[in-house]
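Lecture notes, part 5. Sequence design as translation. It can be helpful to think of inverse folding as translation between two languages: the language of shapes and the language of residues. The source text, in structure tokens, appears below.
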């Protein structure tokens, strides 16, 4: 494309669109039709320039012009309860469902790694000695020790808020840092599994694995599932950088990135629930079977939510991305 010739041919249309957008008075019918036509043409021009002859200054000018025209054509829109309901019943579960081929294997492999680490630590006293001194290990694992008092060391409400904040940050980091080929996600995931493996190994070596599981399972099932979903989605985003499929890399990253950011909001709500369980149920005086039962019920409810509502939304065409009307126009890409 000869950019100078292209600009000369279409500058008058862009200037006319800019003039219509600057009108202080209400546009009449013919002017409104002209505005829509010029908006569509300018959006096409922008796509052509971006794909064939990218020029930062011209692209910036046309991007602003298209954004202003789009706002004028579609009108300003405020979020409503319908948007919230749509996100919770379609967008979020659809995004989680679509990424299940990433987070389910991530969950299975991570759980296996945590179990192997726990077995290795429990079976090798020299490894335990490298973790902490014998007196510190006793303080951690004895009845009424630090592993048990950790969950009741602070008021339930403040503890739940602290846990929720920490886990939400970890999930958000997995989602955002996935863009770096997923490598930071693997490190975050390993650190989480290492912490779980150390707890399993130390409490198992002290003959108190049942106590440890009774403390971690009520909240840990849902909490770790949320972390696995975030990690799997982050890995998927990293793979999109490598292999965007039939879409252009930019389009693929935009679509998957928007879905990942939406998932960050949804997972924050899931982690809020697990944090509440950890703050109020885990340290409660309920029998162990009752506390674990609550954790299992919360986990099953989430999985049903994802596979029933999410599966239905995906089959109806929802991808977890924003509505088509809110996306930037793109040119079709040859497969």
């Amino acid at each position: 494309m000869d950019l100078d010739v292209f600009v000369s041919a279409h500058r008058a249309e862009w200037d006319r669109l800019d003039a219509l957008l600057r009108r202080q008075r209400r546009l009449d019918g013919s002017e409104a039709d002209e505005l829509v036509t010029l908006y569509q043409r300018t959006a096409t021009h922008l796509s052509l320039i971006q794909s064939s002859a990218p020029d930062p200054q011209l692209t910036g000018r046309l991007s602003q012009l298209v954004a202003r025209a789009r706002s004028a054509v579609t009108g300003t829109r405020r979020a409503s309860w319908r948007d919230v309901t749509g996100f919770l019943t379609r967008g979020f579960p659809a995004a989680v469902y679509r990424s299940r081929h990433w987070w389910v294997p991530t969950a299975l492999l991570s759980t296996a790694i945590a179990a192997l680490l726990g077995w290795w630590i429990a079976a090798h006293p020299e490894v335990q000695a490298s973790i902490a001194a014998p007196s510190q290990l006793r303080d951690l694992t004895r009845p009424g020790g630090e592993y048990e008092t950790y969950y009741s060391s602070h008021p339930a409400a403040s503890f739940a808020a602290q846990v929720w904040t920490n886990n939400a940050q970890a999930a958000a980091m997995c989602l955002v840092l996935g863009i770096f080929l997923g490598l930071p996600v693997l490190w975050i995931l390993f650190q989480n599994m290492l912490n779980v493996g150390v707890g399993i190994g130390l409490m198992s070596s002290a003959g108190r694995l049942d106590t440890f599981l009774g403390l971690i399972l009520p909240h840990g099932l849902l909490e770790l599932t949320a972390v696995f979903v975030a990690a799997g989605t982050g890995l998927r985003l990293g793979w999109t950088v490598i292999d965007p499929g039939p879409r252009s890399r930019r389009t693929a990253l935009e679509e998957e990135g928007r879905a990942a950011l939406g998932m960050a909001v949804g997972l924050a709500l899931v982690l809020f629930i697990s944090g509440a369980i950890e703050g109020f149920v885990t340290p409660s005086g309920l029998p162990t079977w009752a506390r674990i039962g609550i954790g299992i019920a919360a986990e099953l409810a989430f999985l049903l939510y994802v596979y029933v509502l999410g599966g239905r939304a995906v089959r109806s065409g929802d991808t977890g991305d924003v509505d088509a009307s809110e996306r930037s126009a793109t040119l079709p890409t040859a497969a």
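The translated text above is only one of many valid answers, since several sequences can fold into similar shapes. Residues 3 and 9 are 10 Å apart (CA to CA).
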